[in-house]
Specification:
CATH superfamily: Aldolase class I
Structural class: alpha/beta
Strand order of the largest sheet: 1-2-3-4-7-9-10-11
Order of helices and strands: HEHEHEHEEEHEEHEHEHEH
CATH class: Alpha Beta
Number of domains: 1
Distance between the termini: 19 Å
Number of strands: 11
Length: 273
């Protein structure tokens, strides 16, 4: 239980900090005057703040490529590869990638950069803010092996933000069948949107349903609920909480990261005792 997180990321009850890229070339909100250099420098600031604050791993994502695509264009992936390549000398901890919302492109980026994990929507059919959203996990996993990315861990988001499962199935049935049919490395349980708290009761039910699978709290883990969430989950993916004033659009605040990680480290110590 949680074993691969110890081997790949160095700990159980792991905290993965989000490094959100500003809008990229081709995105509607891309700052053409500031150019890709502005995106790189903002990403470097957030990466260094997350590392100094003590997170266990970092995940790079094109969070501000709004509105998102489910068939991501080449210029987006190329830009993300450029940014990560520029940051590589500064990366001191394990990292993953998330190309929203395209699992094949996430794996392509992981293979190109040496990422240890990807987070994506791999399974299900959804009614979403960006239209009917379908997936093909079998095709994606075969692509993973074809490009030599079989060691990349797959984090399955089974409660997509801003989307609803088309089939009338509860989260427990989804978790069980996802684990049986697709053998994910982890399940990510979310709130409705980025920064929204993951319901601890749902988190608990999912973990109990698939005790042999790593389960992450995917959104809304904050200073005041981190112990409760980590008492159930094997780890958490944290974005908004680490931002200045806890505002999604702001840069990462190293003081907030340190305060949060100090609490996490105390929680881990208490588990050992």
């Amino acid at each position: 239980m949680g074993k691969w997180t110890i081997e790949a990321l160095g700990t159980d009850k792991v905290i993965i900090g989000m490094c959100h890229f500003l809008p990229l070339p081709g995105d509607p909100s891309f700052d053409k005057k500031g150019g890709i250099e502005k995106v790189i420098e903002a990403a470097r600031h957030d990466l260094l703040a997350l590392q100094e604050g003590g997170v266990d791993a970092v995940m790079f994502s094109n969070e501000f490529s709004l509105p998102y695509l489910t068939d991501v264009r080449t210029e987006t992936v190329a830009s993300m590869a450029r940014i990560i390549g520029e940051l590589m000398p500064d990366v001191k901890i394990p990292f993953g990638v998330n190309v929203l919302w395209d699992p094949k492109q996430s794996l392509n980026l992981a293979a190109a950069t040496g990422a240890k994990f990807v987070r994506e929507i791999f399974t299900g059919v959804y009614a979403s803010d960006f239209g009917l959203w379908n997936t093909n996990c079998g095709d994606v996993v075969r692509h993973q092996h074809n490009i030599g990315a079989e060691d990349v861990k797959l984090l399955f988001n089974i409660v997509p933000e801003a989307a609803r499962y088309l089939g009338d199935r509860n989260i427990i049935d989804i978790a069980k069948s996802t684990v049986f049919n697709t053998k994910p490395d982890a399940l990510c349980v979310s709130g409705l949107v980025a920064g929204a708290e993951t319901d601890s009761q749902i988190l608990k039910k999912v973990k109990e349903a698939v005790p042999g699978t790593v389960v992450f709290a995917n959104t809304g883990v904050k200073l005041n609920n981190v112990e409760e969430q980590l008492s159930i989950a094997d780890g958490a993916i944290v974005g908004t909480t680490f931002k200045k004033d806890g505002v999604f659009e702001n840069p990462v605040d190293v003081t907030r990261v340190k305060e949060f990680m100090d609490r996490v480290k105390k929680f881990r110590e208490n588990l050992k005792n």
